[in-house]
Amino acid sequence: MAKKKEGALSVYRILDLTDSRGAYCTKLFADLGADVIKIERPEGDPGRTFPPFVDDIPHLEKSLYFLHRNAGKRGITLNLETSDGRDIFTKLVKTADVLVENSPPDYMASLGLDYPALKEINPRLIVASITEFGHSGPYKNRKGSNLVDFAMSGVMITSGYPGKEPCLCPGTPAYDAASLHANIAILSALWMRGTKGKGQYIDVSVHETSRLGLYPWIVPNYSYALNPGGPPPTTETRMGASIYPVYPCKDGLIRVIALTPRQWDALVRVLGSPEVLQIPDWRNFMYRIGNADDLYALVLEFTQKYTMIELFEAGKREGVPIAPILNIEDFYNSPHTKARGYFVEIDHSVAGKADYPGPPYKWSKTPAEIQRPAPCLGEHNEEIYCRELGFSKEDLVALRGASVL
């Protein structure tokens, strides 16, 4: 790889003890230049076994899920359930700014590596723990998963077609939402440390953050309902075509958000101002909801006359949100993603060359970018243990023999 470039967070070192629950959190730090050291058990992160794989061949170095969420990190192996492993880990903690981990509640404490113990070693350390339901409360010891957290957050009731079973969004939306919230909380803690000089502990619940990250606008609804005399919370359900309808057009599908009278008027202009859509009652949002099926059939007659891009550009011009619904190939080839240089080529020593999604933002003075491929299992053991911690190569051989590395 080319010499590491300066990023917005290049001065920080992050220890990454996460798997699928927190891998995206630490990837965001790596994109911003932080030195992220991924610490895996000797057999590897379970995420390495998640499909799909390059060439559809299961392999520890070819999981697309793992390759994406761990790009930009260095990687070492370490068995924390051995005394030597814990001793080595405390050496790493001394020079770290942040530790992100997602072990079950009380697991780190059972190893003598919980926050009270670690802050004695490094008072400036910020520790973020990502668990299914947090480290306290009645659900603390319940088992969870991306599916369970997505459903229990309340988001799933709004997913899918009315009258049919709810559906899970592709990927791991609950875990990625938790990762993003943890990342923001850590950035805030780093900022505070600059004024207070001390680290802190951050407790992140996937159950809570998946609600806040994926469907946040219902939260104020509940909050207002708790006030004396406040309105009752709105019943959550799948609204289908009545709120954010999806319409077929000449070459695919588009989604329309026409809620206000101004947006509705703009949509009518986009569709050529047909007389049937200029009836005054249609400007009333509640009237449109009450007659959603009839309205859908009327609008469909006109959307099918245009392409996705024609409707998108007309919506932008007239002032109504219209988005083309792109498949993966369409998104990859989109003029927008091409113009932004969103996909970047990364060459992995085992998985080979491929285009990866880049950071979702562009900064001029401290660019966010992928600076290295995801690490192979134990790829940086010698670099970190020998060059930085002072171990010899013979030490590493002995530690591997003792199942420490």
CATH homology superfamily of the largest domain: Crotonobetainyl-coa:carnitine coa-transferase, domain 1
Overall structural domain count:
2
Helix amount, in percent? 25-40%
How big is the Rg? Answer: 25 Å
Largest sheet: 6 strands, parallel
Could you say which structural class the secondary elements and strand pairing correspond to? alpha/beta
**Helix-strand pattern, N to C?**
EHEHEHEHHEHHEHHEEHHHHEHHEEHH
Strand line-up of the largest beta sheet:
3-2-1-4-5-6
Instruction: Kindly report the CATH topology of the largest domain.
Output: Rossmann fold
Sum up the overall morphology in one term. Answer: elongated
Q: Give the strand content.
A: 5-15%
Distance between the termini: 25 Å
Written description of the protein model:
The chain has 405 residues and is α/β, with parallel strands linked by helices. It folds into two domains: 264 residues, 3-Layer(aba) Sandwich (Rossmann fold), CATH 3.40.50.10540; 88 residues, formyl-coa transferase, domain 3. 38% of the residues lie in helices and 14% in strands. It contains 17 helices and eleven strands. The strands form three sheets. Strands 3-2-1-4-5-6 form a six-stranded parallel beta sheet. The chain has a three-stranded antiparallel beta sheet with strand order 7-8-9, with helices on one face. α1 packs across α7, α6 crosses α8 and α7 packs across α8. The mean pLDDT is 91.
Secondary structure layout plus pairing:
Blueprint: E1 13-17, H1 23-31, E2 35-40, H2 64-69, E3 74-77, H3 83-94, E4 98-101, H4 107-110, H5 115-121, E5 126-131, H6 146-152, H7 173-196, E6 201-205, H8 206-214, H9 218-226, E7 246-249, E8 252-256, H10 261-270, H11 285-290, H12 292-303, H13 308-318, E9 322-325, H14 328-332, H15 335-340, E10 343-348, E11 352-357, H16 381-386, H17 393-401
Parallel strand pairs: 1-2, 1-4, 2-3, 4-5, 5-6
Antiparallel strand pairs: 7-8, 8-9, 10-11
Helix pairs in contact: 1-7, 6-8, 7-8, 10-13
